[in-house]
């Protein structure tokens, strides 16, 4: 059976795809302080990402809410924002829900963050469920088109398993964190995750077309890249598919590089093939390349001025960054976690520029690990 090994017990679920089916879930939420939550989206199949399914585990009962059904979910959001959430890999979900309805979590325990702080080599939900509960999630569920209706029973079972074991998994990881004295680390990570979720996804920018190694382009290549990138966006929106299903960024860069080298329209498009959509899409792609070749690259949107906070490091700052990185790597090895969990490359650069901003750049637990290291202690 899809979703689990033979010996695993499938959770029963209630599918909510009509307005009259929602009240029992609302009543259940009114009786609890905590809920396990997951979402399924259609970002692999459509131009604009939508929440397609919401999975809840409330007091041992799984509820699956069809988010594409004609149901007023405002009462659901109002209740959810008052509850503690147990989730796995919540970053995408929280941003998605914020963009949909302005949702902000009250508090959170993210089992993926916990597994990372425990230095688990495999911290995906499928790996953790198999390790602790003998459950094997079918990988097909990760690639499914969740916007297709009706949702198959097999996919609904898969979706149920995404939340069914979360409370038990949370309890296991929580005990391990306590043994290592990392409970406060986890709380800080989860609060930061909530804050990041309220930012939603970055809005479109007029320089989003500068993909790949576009900084190497100076002439016709820039104009062609601008034209074919917008052609891909417009085509994807018209076909209602993600842009990568029209063509890859590498494909766009090859066209731009051919133009940069002085190629004609025919030479640029000589070996191009767009799969089964080629007959329909090739004429508009040709028009885009032609328009790019005819455009003066000086008329393209200009890069925004460099943020002074992200200026290039001076030689002394580079030397300090190297020392901080060495200290970070040594401390990470001592506490047995991935070094970037303490500070990533961007954060190392910020600290090297302004060591006095250590507590602004990092979370308290991260800053405390670095504060007493030789690279920063003497500053």
TrEMBL record:
- Spans traversing the lipid bilayer: none
The cross-references to InterPro entries, in alphabetical order and at most eight, read:
3'-5'_exonuclease_dom, HRDC-like_sf, HRDC_dom, HRDC_dom_sf, RNase_D-like, RNaseH-like_sf, RNaseH_sf
CDD domains, A to Z: RNaseD_exo
Query: Per the record, where are the segments of Basic and acidic residues compositional bias?
Result: 293-310
Q: Per its UniProt record, what Pfam families does this chain match?
A: DNA_pol_A_exo1, HRDC
- Domain spans labelled 3'-5' exonuclease: 13-178
Supply the Gene3D superfamilies for this chain.
HRDC domain, Ribonuclease H-like superfamily/Ribonuclease H
SUPFAM superfamilies xref list = HRDC-like, Ribonuclease H-like
Its Gene Ontology biological processes?
nucleobase-containing compound metabolic process
Q: Where is this region: Disordered?
A: 293-317
Task: Please give the Gene Ontology molecular function terms for this protein.
Answer: 3'-5' exonuclease activity; nucleic acid binding; nucleotide binding
This protein is called HRDC domain-containing protein
Organism (species): Horticoccus luteus
The taxonomy runs: Bacteria, Pseudomonadati, Verrucomicrobiota, Opitutia, Opitutales
């Amino acid at each position: 059976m899809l979703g689990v090994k033979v010996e695993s017990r499938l959770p029963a679920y209630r599918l909510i795809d009509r307005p009259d089916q929602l009240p029992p879930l609302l009543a259940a939420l009114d009786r609890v302080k905590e809920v396990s939550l997951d979402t399924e989206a259609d970002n692999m199949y459509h131009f604009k990402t939508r929440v397609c399914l919401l999975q809840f585990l409330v007091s041992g009962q799984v509820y699956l809410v069809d988010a594409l059904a004609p149901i007023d979910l405002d009462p659901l959001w109002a209740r959810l924002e008052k509850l503690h959430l147990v989730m796995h890999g919540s970053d995408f979900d929280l941003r998605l829900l914020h963009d949909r309805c302005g949702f902000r979590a009250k508090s959170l325990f993210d089992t993926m963050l916990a597994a990372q702080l425990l230095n688990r080599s495999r911290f995906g939900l499928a790996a953790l469920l198999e390790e602790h509960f003998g459950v094997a999630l079918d990988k097909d569920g990760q690639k499914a088109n969740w916007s297709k209706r009706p949702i198959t029973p097999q996919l609904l079972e898969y979706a149920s398993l995404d939340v069914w074991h979360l409370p038990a998994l949370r309890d296991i990881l929580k005990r391990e964190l306590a043994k290592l004295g990392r409970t406060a680390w986890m709380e800080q990570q989860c609060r930061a995750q909530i804050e990041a979720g309220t930012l939603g996804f970055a809005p479109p920018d007029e320089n989003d077309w500068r993909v790949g190694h576009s900084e190497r382009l100076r002439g016709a290549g820039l104009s062609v890249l601008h034209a074919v990138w917008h052609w891909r966006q417009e085509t994807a929106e018209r076909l209602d598919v993600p842009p990568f299903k029209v063509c890859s960024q590498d494909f766009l860069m090859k066209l731009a590089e051919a133009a940069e080298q002085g190629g004609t329209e025919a030479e640029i498009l000589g070996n191009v093939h767009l799969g089964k959509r080629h007959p329909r899409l090739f004429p508009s792609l040709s028009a885009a390349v032609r328009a790019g070749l005819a455009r003066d690259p000086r008329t393209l949107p200009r890069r925004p001025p460099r943020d002074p906070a992200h200026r290039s490091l001076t030689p002394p700052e580079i030397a300090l960054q190297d020392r901080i990185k060495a200290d970070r790597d040594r401390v990470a090895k001592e506490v047995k976690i991935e070094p970037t969990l303490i500070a990533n490359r961007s954060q190392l650069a910020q600290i090297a520029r302004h060591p006095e901003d250590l507590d602004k750049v990092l979370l308290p637990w991260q800053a405390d690990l670095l504060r007493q290291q030789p690279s920063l202690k003497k500053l």
